[in-house]
Amino acid sequence: MEALLLQVLNGLDKGGAYALIALGLTLVFGTLGVVNFAHGALFMLGAFVAVSVQNVLTISKKVKDESITFFDAYKETPYLEIWWGDFGSLIIDFSVPIAILVAIPVMLLIGLAMERGLVRHFYKREHADQILVTFGLAIVLQEIVKANFGANPIPISAPDAVAGSVDIGSMFGLTGVVYPWWRILYLCFSLAVIAGVFAFLHMTTFGMVVRAGMHDRETVGLLGIDIQRRFTIVFGLAAVVAGLAGVMYTPILPPDYHMGMDFLVLSFVVVVVGGMGSLPGAVAAGFLLGILQSFFSMNEVKQYLPGIDQIIIYLVAVIILLVRPRGLMGKD
Amino acid sequence: MHQIITPSSRGKDLSILLIFIAVVLTAPLWGSLIGAGYPDLLQKFAIFGLFAIGYNLLFGLTGYLSFGHAAFLGVGSYVTVWSFKLLSMNVIPAVMFAVVFSGIFALVIGFLSLRRSGIYFSILTLAFAQMSYNLAYSVLTPITNGETGLRVLRDDPRVIDNALGVTLEGSPLGDLFGITLTGYAGFYFCAAMLILGFWLSLKIFRSPFGMKLVAIKSNQTRMEYTGFNPRPYLLSAFVISGMYAGLAGSLMAITDPLAGAERMQWTASGEVVLMTILGGLGTLFGPILGAATIKYFENIFSAINLQVLENTFAFMPEWLGGIMVTITRPFVGEGWHLTLGVLFMLIIIFMPGGLIEGFRRLSRLFGGKKAASETPAAESEGGVK
Asked: How far apart are CA B20 and CA B86, in angstroms?
């Protein structure tokens, strides 16, 4: 029971990341009809916004270490600590939450630039061309990151206050279910972002127009609405969602330049399982596949089906595509 | 939009083939002119050329974008190494088994994947390839030797070799009835396979079968109305291109008897897509050209380091040279993939027909009247536009 609960939790936070990326992919596909292979790269860029913020906050200078008296020792002290003392170290500690605030405008700009600069020229071309050009863009983006940040994973730490673990089992009268705070936060965060996106689409006039445009682009255009401009903003929004997923994931997985590619394949699988173009489908499939994956990584299951944890997601995708090609919630 | 290939006269195809053979066999000569005159690189041209030719038969002719062909490459490599381990160091059984097994593997995956088309087909092949890759890394370790990679050992059984009393001398390398396939021997073996593969691809391009594949690409519904079921043709194309990939994988393992799972990763499938597109999708020569171009520049660009750059720009004033070095530095050496990505994007955006289309445009630009008479010829040589 305890082990099962732990696996469900494990699956939920991984599922949260899948759901966020798949949500963005689906938004772009549903509005612009573009299959964006560079979406994983946006996730990766988000993670590297967090890295950059941490780097900027910890710009240091050499200061003489007073505690060592018998020779001249120097240590690196960040300027923030020199200027503001404890408050400075607090800011450094909170680099990931600060990175979230930074990532929103940055990712929005990147998304808008991508749509205006490249993707818009590919609306009329075949899906294969869209896949290929965005695949090329993904390579370029990850190589740029590699050139600037190196090839090794860069560890990022969560704020001290939430760096520990919590005995979540005690709330339900179970023992031994201890879980890292940050992963619980990640789950809540992804749920909040998903809720935000849905609220935006369903409760604002802008969102209503976008939904109408997804449904029947031509008619909305005939009503005199510049639907293209709104879709461009939706692309930016999708980039922000992917970027935020990346920022928040950094304390869980130290980012490196090819993390985007790893997540991209999985999120495409999530999108087709959920049903191409269906937003609730993408979210549901993200969590579902996350939970399935961690459930099948349990030793009890692996005993009977060796290696199943490695392929379960793909296996589910293959079965769904063959049996129900429109996906779980796709419309016919 | 798509021109149907007109079956040209036999004589012309023969001359294309003869020219191709001549170019391939003299590769060490012209290779040395451009700094590629050593067997390691020439082998890569041939192996990846084969891989791309086969891939082109599927994606170029039918338009089905597969992201899983690296899996067949991997199967070919593993089967070859196992043949070395269990049977003989002779490459003939190794190549045959590799082609057969990758063909069977492609049959299974193709049968399932081809139930869907478009993006769904791509995702299915991607899913199968990732499954193979993940399994090769984890539970299939007894067969694939996991992360370390499968290699030929001195004390492997090698049933046939032992029965014939052939003992292994020196390091284990593939041989062809006593000829050890290293250096130029290795290259000429790969070259022979490349010529064979090219000849087969030429035959397919000119055959009614090839025409049906093009029909699938241009209008599948219309093809069905004319009374053809596209599925068997698609599946055949898929299996054939899988066998090409298996052959390429086998040659990789022959020239370097080691098979690793990373060959099966989906980004490796991406590489063959890049090659095919860069050269010219759906053309006869394009894929080989693309493969050779990518491997050639990979070799050149990866070797350039800061020192070389500084020497190159030494003739400029110091400040300008400094700027040039800063600009070009990320694109060379380790950053070769950046160059590749940028090049690939430019090709897709401005020249979807690849290098072959580029040549055609150039000849049209400079040839004027002369080109007008040449263009149809170029097109029938190049096959589909």
From this structure: 36
Q: What average pLDDT does this structure show over B7-14?
A: 72
Residue A18 lies in a domain: yes
**For A272, nearest residue in chain B (alpha carbons):** B120
Taking CB atoms within 8 Å and a gap of at least 24, the contacts of A221-230 are A230/A206
A230, A214 in Cβ contact below 8 A?
A: no
- Tens digit of pLDDT for each residue in A7-16? 888 888 888 8
> Which residues between 29 and 68 in chain B have a beta carbon less than 8 angstroms from any beta carbon of chain A?
63, 65
pLDDT at A109 over 90: yes
Query: Searching chain A, which residue's CA lies closest to the CA of residue B64?
Result: A128
Residue A273: give its domain's CATH number: 1.10.3470
Do A318 and A50 form a contact (C-beta atoms < 8 A)?
A: no
User: Does residue B327 belong to the interface with chain A, where contact is any CB pair within 8 Å?
Assistant: no
- The per-residue pLDDT for B380 is 41
Interatomic CA distance for residues A320 and A269, integer angstroms: 10
Q: In this predicted structure, what is the pLDDT of residue B383?
A: 40
| Spatial contact of B38 and B186, defined as CB atoms under 8 Å apart | no
pLDDT at residue B379 greater than cutoff 60: no
Crossing angle of helices A2-32 and A227-249, rounded to 10°: 150
Phi, psi of A74 (to 5 degrees): -125, 145
Residue B46 has pLDDT above 80, yes or no: yes
**Exposure class string for A242-275: b at 16+ Cβ within 10 A, else e:** bbbbbbbbbbbbbbbbbbbbebbbbbbbbbbbbb
In the block, tokens 């290293």 appear at B182
ipTM score of complex: 0.82
Spatial distance between the Cα atoms of B311 and A280, rounded to a whole number of angstroms: 58
> For residue A275, what are the domain limits?
2-60+86-156+177-323
Q: Work out the widest C-alpha separation in chain A, in whole angstroms.
A: 81
A162 domain-assigned: no
Within a domain: A293 = yes
The answer, for B333 touching chain A at a CB cutoff of 8 Å, is no
User: Shortest Cα distance from A145 to chain B (angstroms)?
Assistant: 10
Mutation site, B348, B350, B351, interface A, largest A CB count within 10 A: B348
**pLDDT digits over B308-348, tens only?**
777 777 777 777 877 877 777 777 777 788 888 888 888 88
**CB environment B2-18: b (16+ within 10 A), e (fewer):** eeebeeeeeeebeebee
**pLDDT of B198 strictly over 90:** yes
> What band does A200 get if pLDDT is binned at 50, 70 and 90?
very high
Encoded tokens for B343 = 């090049």
Most confident range (mean pLDDT) of A103-107, A147-151, A178-182, B123-127 is A103-107
Mean pLDDT of B194-199: 94
Answer whether B139 sits within 8 Å of A307, measured CB to CB.
yes
Q: What share of chain B in percent tops pLDDT 70?
A: 92
Total domains present in chain A: 1
Q: Is residue B233 predicted with pLDDT exceeding 50?
A: yes
Contacts of A26 in chain B (CB under 8 A): none
CA atoms B223, B226, B229, B235: torsion sign: negative
Compare CB distances from B118 to A127, A129, A135 and report the shortest one's residue.
Answer: A127
Predicted pLDDT at B250: 94
Q: Which of B157, B167, B176 is nearest to B95 (CA)?
A: B176
Compare all CA atoms of chain B with the CA of A119 and give the residue at the minimum distance: B349
Residue A313 lies inside a defined structural domain of this protein: yes
Report CB contact under 8 Å: A132, B273.
yes
More confident residue, B298 or B108: B108
Which residues in chain A are contacts of B115 at CB distance < 8 A? 322
Distance in Å, alpha carbon of A102 to nearest chain B alpha carbon:
26
